[in-house]
Amino acid sequence: GWAAVPQVAARLAPSVVTILTPGGNGSGVVYTPDGLVITNEHVVRGLDTVQVGFADGQRVAGVVRAVDPVTDLALV
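and the corresponding structure tokens:
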């Protein structure tokens, strides 16, 4: 039930990232152990690289690997 939501959120928080771009910020989720991130296409539109911010404050460079404007999904 809803009582489990805080535990689930705490467990998943490290996988949620911030996508930082010159035009603003968006969110994403780390999808694979090697660091592939799923985000929205409109967040990375027109960009080749972005900054990826983690819950612990770390920031790393991310390369936009694929975009699909129809589904509004992107891989970084």
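(Above: one complete record from the training split.) The mean pLDDT is 89.
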